User: What shape does this take?
Amino acid sequence: MIEGLNKIFESRVRLGIMSVLMVNDWVDFNTLKELLAVTDGNLASHIAGLEKNEFIEVRKEFVGKKPKTSFGASKLGKKAFKEHLTALENLLKKNT
Assistant: This one.
């Protein structure tokens, strides 16, 4: 019944990160932090998990003299997230 659900996306924070990245090309760290209302450390740990699984891409640059880190969903991440959402939809259909 839960076939197709991806354990990586069980966390509400990771689900939120991927949801934001699916509809935006690139989103910077501070914007993600504000949108998801999480701490720096919490966001950083979830970002690391998604990066480890190659579901997101990281872009580091300088804006003026300040470093700026942005994130985008990778092709693999988009595919995995779409499959996860499809599995959730199928689960809901089976239980209605």
User: Anything to note?
Assistant: The chain has one domain: 7-94.
